[in-house]
Amino acid sequence: MKKLVFATNNQHKTEEIRLALAGEYEVLNLNDIGCDVDIPETAETFEGNATLKSKYVIENFNLDCFADDSGLEVEALNNEPGIYSARYGGSRDSLANMQLVLQKLEGQSNRKARFRTVISLMLNGENHIFEGKIDGTIRESLSGSKGFGYDPIFQPEGYDITFAEMDMAEKNT
User: Fold this and answer.
1) Percentage of the chain surpassing pLDDT 90?
2) Which helix (H) or strand (E) holds 104?
3) Could you say which of 32, 69, 135, 167 is catalytic?
4) What are the structural domains, with CATH classification, of the chain?
5) 113 pairs with which residues across the strands?
6) What is the pLDDT of residues 135-157, one digit of tens each?
7) Is 33 helix (H, G, I), strand (E, B) or coil?
8) Residue (of 130, 144, 119) closest to 49 by Cα position
9) How many angstroms separate the first and last alpha carbons of the chain?
């Protein structure tokens, strides 16, 4: 089976990708290849941050890989938290991040939001960029215990439950 490195140490993301690519690729994360560096995300865009991470793996480990940069964009907050999603509340604390979004949206009728993911896939020295978006709304309170990040407050369009209330198969459809 072909090996592909996912340039992350986020175990939740790793498990989601392993499930999605099961049988096709052996997905390794940074820990699996002995990389204990927290690759800096210093770019101003999702694409830039994803590319920084995938280039780091290519340059330091010479392995085909992909990296993502993902975030929540809330319309009423001028698309914040955006590239700062992981540390929006001051640290890598999902609860603090969600609470800050909810606090800033208090009294707002416009709760439109979207999750955005950009993937940088480095194969044979070439960078391929992919982007995905899912529209939805921000709930007024947390609901559900599955998933990670902003999942308990994000309700995807066409559903009446949050990502955190969905099982992995439903979330990935």
Assistant:
1) 71
2) helix 94-105
3) 69
4) 2-171 (3.90.950.10)
5) 74, 136
6) 999 999 989 888 778 999 999 99
7) helix
8) 119
9) 25
Asked whether the CA dihedral 5, 10, 11, 14 is positive or negative, the reply is: negative
pTM of structure? 0.86
Stretch 71-96: mean pLDDT, rounded?
A: 92
* E strand or H helix that includes residue 113: strand 112-123
Total H helices, total E strands in the chain: 4, 7
DSSP letter (8 states) at residue 76:
G
Cβ contacts of 115 within 8 Å, gap of 6 or more: 70, 71, 72, 73, 133, 134, 136, 150, 154
- The half-sphere exposure of 8 on its side-chain side, counting CA atoms within 13 A, is 20
| 120 token code pair | 């940088």
The one-letter amino acid at 74: V
Active site residue 69: yes
Look up residue 101 and give its two tokens. 């979004």
At 111-123, the pLDDT tens digits run 999 999 999 999 9
